[in-house]
Amino acid sequence: MTSTERRYFEEMYESSRDPWNYSSSWYERRKYALTVAALPRVRYPSAFEPGCSIGVLSELLAVRCDRLLATDIIPAPLERASERLHRFPGVIVEQRAIPEWWPEQRFDLVVLSELAYYFDAETLSDIVLKVAESTDPGADLVAVHWRGETDYPLTGDQAHELIDGSPEFQRVAHHAEERFVLDVWERTK
Ligand SMILES: C[S@@+](CC[C@H](N)C(=O)[O-])C[C@H]1O[C@@H](n2cnc3c(N)ncnc32)[C@H](O)[C@@H]1O
Questions:
Q1: Measured from the CB, is residue 118 less than 6 Å from ligand 1?
Q2: Ligand 1 centroid vs 49 CA: distance in angstroms?
């Protein structure tokens, strides 16, 4: 299976304003708290969060980042993300699809939260290479994904194994529990 079609996400957002219950679920709130707790640095000058949806995690990242670029392929959730994030002057919210579009900026932090398994292995490898090309040694890459069965191209564990196999990134933190896996990699020198 190749990367998940845009139509899949359009239908998710047509069925609900918050299809994964990001704003109400304790599971999600706890996972987000663990995700930001795992960030090695207290502050990041510049971060990129593709696939930001309605911006619940973005809000937690925004308080730790001077600048945050939050993007999503679908416009509907970005309206809610913009409302949630408008009080942070350093946050930019844009409708963009990776990896066809990739920002021409440098980042100290890239966050792939519940996104990497929607791509096939070849496309995810390309994304990891793009992350490497837009970061300097010492930057952090964070991924967090559900571990259950899906009909996505990759499982959460497969996506993390693929990232972990990249010579540009060295894993510095790993947290796995029954439902999700969370890893932090540092861009190698
Ligand atoms: C499961 S949600 C995860 C949302 C958010 N990262 C979080 O963890 O709260 C996946 C999001 O990625 C977006 N998405 C899917 N493919 C994308 C792509 N190629 N580029 C940017 N966003 C994409 C979807 O529209 C959806 O909002």
A1: yes
A2: 9
